[in-house]
Amino acid sequence: MPALKVYPAGHFPTVQAPESSFTGEVVISNYFERPAPSRLVSATVDFAPGARTPWKVNPRGQTLLVLSGTGWAQAEGEDIVEIRAGDMVWCPPGQRHWEGATPTQPMTYLAMQEFENGRSVEFQGAVTDEEYLRGPAGAAPRP
C-alpha cells in the first residue's frame, strides 16, 4: 500500500449546501472522510454574505481554520464573536453552536471534525434572522 496519496485539485466534488439545513448561499467543496481507523471528516465551506450554518453539535468537537473573509461564530449562551482569515476556532464536543459570514462579507473556512457513532454533526434548527443580526456584542475592531 502506498504511504502517500495525492488527490489533484478538483478531485472531490463541489456542491450547494442543502437549503433545508443552511441559510443563504453556501458551497461545500473538498469534502472527504478517511477510512477507519481514522475518524477524520473535512470540507472547505464557502459562505456568501449573510449565509450561515444552522445551530449544530459536533459530538467529537470541530476545528475551523478561516481561510478568507470575515465571519461570525456563536456558542449557545455566549455572545457572537467575529472570526477572520487566519483564525482557528475550536468548538468543544457537544457544544451547540453556529457560524457563517457577516451580512456584508463572505467567508471561507476549512472544517475538520471526527465521526462518532456514524455521524460528525447533528443539525438542530435554523439560526433565525433575529439571532443572527444581533452580531458581536460591543466588539472592538480587530487589527
From TrEMBL:
Boundaries of every Cupin type-2 domain copy: 44-111
The species this protein was found in: Hymenobacter metallilatus
SUPFAM superfamilies per UniProt: RmlC-like cupins
CDD domains per the UniProt record, alphabetical: cupin_HNL-like
Protein name, per record: Cupin domain-containing protein
Pfam families attached to this UniProt entry: Cupin_2
